[in-house]
């Protein structure tokens, strides 16, 4: 009887421990007028409710329009070309971001864009294809399908640097990782082939 009492009390304690779920997602949401807007969605639970509260004044769910990304559509950004075609060769994980508040503050700056495996900004490899999935797998393993690349935008909203790689861990929560270039100058390297425009 004493053994069952201990087990019961343990179960009650486990059930009453505040949850710490924190999940970042990105996708398109249809607006009432019919247009689609790219949104960042953050889901929080008890222990992380302050993050959603600070971003959206809602303790459990947060949804914010992602900032406009200039020159992301097309092939003019050498940074995006590197990210979509050779991210595993040009970047490496430096460390996990332990202070989640840093990521929350970053998402509140409106100077970022999130890229995923089905990003419409991928003009370099088949969208949702194996090539880019393999690149993301080098950072997030089996969670490559849900991985996000957080790219910082400059003052005119052009992509300027890879800030974080966001992976979904075994608990279904978002883990953020800081990255570093494998070689100096990566991110500002010119395109390997010139872009030629024909004007009729």
Q: Count of DSSP E strands?
A: 8
What pattern of helices and strands is seen along the backbone?
HEEHEHEHEHEEE
Physical arrangement of strands within the biggest beta sheet: 4-8-7-6-5
Bin the helical content.
25-40%
Report the uncertain regions.
Answer: 1-19, 188-200
Signal peptide: 1-21
Protein name: Bdellovibrio beta-sandwich domain-containing protein
Keywords: Signal
Describe it for me?
There is one protein chain. The chain is an alpha+beta fold and about 200 residues long. It has a domain of about 120 residues. The protein is about 30% helix and about 30% strand. It contains 5 helices and 8 strands, in the order αββαβαβαβαβββ. A hairpin with a 5-residue loop joins strand 7 and strand 8. Helix 2 runs parallel beside helix 4 and helix 3 crosses helix 5. The longest helix is centred in the first third of the chain and has 15 residues. It is globular and about 40 Å long. The N terminus and C terminus are likely disordered. Keywords: Signal. This is Bdellovibrio beta-sandwich domain-containing protein. It comes from Bdellovibrio bacteriovorus (strain ATCC 15356 / DSM 50701 / NCIMB 9529 / HD100).
Can you give keywords for this protein?
three-stranded antiparallel β-sheet; disordered N terminus; signal; alpha+beta; 200 residues; Bdellovibrio beta-sandwich domain-containing protein; disordered C terminus; five-stranded antiparallel β-sheet; single chain
């Amino acid at each position: 009887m004493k053994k069952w009492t201990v087990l019961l009390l343990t179960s009650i304690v486990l059930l009453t421990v505040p949850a710490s779920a924190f999940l970042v997602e990105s996708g398109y949401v249809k607006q009432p007028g019919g247009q689609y807007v790219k949104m960042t969605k953050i889901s929080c639970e008890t222990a992380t409710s302050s993050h959603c509260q600070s971003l959206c004044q809602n303790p459990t769910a947060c949804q914010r329009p992602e900032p406009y990304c200039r020159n992301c559509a097309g092939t003019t950004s050498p940074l995006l070309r590197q990210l979509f075609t050779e991210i595993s060769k040009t970047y490496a994980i430096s460390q996990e971001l332990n202070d989640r508040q840093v990521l929350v503050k970053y998402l509140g700056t409106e100077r970022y864009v999130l890229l995923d495996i089905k990003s419409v900004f991928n003009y370099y490899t088949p969208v949702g294809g194996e090539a880019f999935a393999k690149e993301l797998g080098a950072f997030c393993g089996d969670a490559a399908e849900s991985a996000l690349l957080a790219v910082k935008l400059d003052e005119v909203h052009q992509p300027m640097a890879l800030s974080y790689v966001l992976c979904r861990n075994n608990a279904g929560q978002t883990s953020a990782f800081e990255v570093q270039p494998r070689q100096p100058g990566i991110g500002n390297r010119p395109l390997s082939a010139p872009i030629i425009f024909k004007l009729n």
